[in-house]
Amino acid sequence: MDLDSCIAKGLINKSVFSNEIIIKEFNQAKTHLETGERLFNSGEIDASIIVAYLSLFHFARTILYSEGYKERSHFCVFQYLVEKYCKHEISNLARNCLNYLSVRHKVQYDGLHANKTVPLDLIDDAHRMHQMVKNIMIQKKIING
């Protein structure tokens, strides 16, 4: 499914968010990242995947909110970044997130037990996403450098 399909199906809609809500979303993503790391370090591999994935989702949603959109689909949030930021490195991260979406689903709903490399890659990408989203929010003058 492409972004136009997401919009046509009502999975991405125009909306208005205050800077306060956008910053709250960004901070929630940071909290999920920190929690995902703590879970991983305590040996909770599957839980760390779920929570670190949520950090990626909330970082991506921060951008969506800042551009006046809300979502009804995790897939469409990442697809938005893939298409709207196709000339930015965050597009490649969003492609990774589409894979993490599948892994998170299998862990959460199908009982898959992942090996330790999965959360390490996910957490590393979440740190990269954090920095990229932070830079975008600074450029948009939503947060201070």
Radius of gyration: 15 Å
Q: Name the helicity range.
A: over 70%
Low-confidence regions = none
What amount of the residues lies in strands?
A: under 5%
In the sheet with the most strands, the strands line up as 1-2
In whole angstroms, the N-to-C terminal distance is 36 Å
The number of E-state strands comes to 2
The helix/strand order is HEHHEHHH
CATH topology: Four Helix Bundle (Hemerythrin (Met), subunit A)
Q: Please give the largest β-sheet.
A: 2 strands, antiparallel
**CATH class bucket:** Mainly Alpha
What best-fitting shape do the alpha-carbon axes yield?
globular
Continuous helix count = 6
Fourth-tier CATH superfamily name: Nucleotidyltransferases  domain 2
Your description of this structure?
By secondary structure, the chain is mainly alpha-helical. It has 6 helices and 2 strands, in the order H-E-H-H-E-H-H-H. It has helices spanning 3-8, 19-41, 45-66, 74-84, 89-110, 117-139, and strands at 12-14, 69-71. It has a two-stranded antiparallel ribbon with strand order 1-2. Helix 3 crosses helix 4.
Short précis:
The chain is mainly α and 145 residues long. The chain has six helices and two strands, in the order αβααβααα. It has helices at residues 3-8, 19-41, 45-66, 74-84, 89-110, 117-139, and strands at 12-14, 69-71.
Keyphrases for this structure?
single chain; mainly alpha; Four Helix Bundle (Hemerythrin (Met), subunit A); globular
Layout of secondary structure:
Layout: H1 3-8, E1 12-14, H2 19-41, H3 45-66, E2 69-71, H4 74-84, H5 89-110, H6 117-139
Helix pairs in contact: 2-3, 2-6, 3-4, 3-5, 3-6, 4-5, 5-6
